[in-house]
Design brief:
The chain has helices at residues 11-21, 26-32, 39-59, 88-102, 105-123, 147-162, 175-183, and strands spanning 2-5, 63-68, 71-79, 130-138, 167-172, 187-196, 199-209. It is an alpha+beta fold. The longest helix is centred in the first third of the chain and has 21 residues, at 39-59.
Length: 211
Amino acid sequence: MSYRYATMDDLPEILPLISKSFIDYPVYAIAFQEKFQSRKQYFSFLHKMHRVEITPYIQQRLCYVAVMEGKIVAAALVESPHFQPTSWLGAIKAGALSLVTSFWSRNIAKLLQFLSLAKQDCQHRFSNHSWYLEMLAVSEKMQRKRVGTHFIEEFIVPEIKRQHGKQLFLITNTKQNYAFYRKNKFQQFSHKIHLLNRQPLENWSFVRTLS
């Protein structure tokens, strides 16, 4: 397995990989899924939303991919201390115009508000050398084959350390991911329950010291 920075040419491979990985993720499901008449429509929406999300990471060389036999099998989005999130203008240029015109902006706003709240415990501990793992996705066929672990150990952590990162933070909302990160040297330092659309969601905050 090899690793590299993603390019915009990789989007056709990365988008379905991430959208499939997160189609049942509770944050997105609670925020959006019931609003669609079919799973196909919901998947199409996630595809558009993730295109907007991924683009600034690729542009800033903060989207990493794992490649096996010429195919992308995993992708990660990381935030450096200097990461610049997309603006609304940038989002529209990246393809978000259809989201703005075809979906309830208040639902997107609620999601962003929830994610901001969920991330606060990490942000309170940030230093000038802190990085954040926004997303890690492994293709369905390659799950439970230690691809995620190898990706973290062989590229994500070394690359962040190469850029003088000292800590890697993340949050998750599922017990499965909680167990995965515990096994991969991340230490839980916060566990809270937040409400999204009046539904409770568990939120675990993790950090890994990069020595």
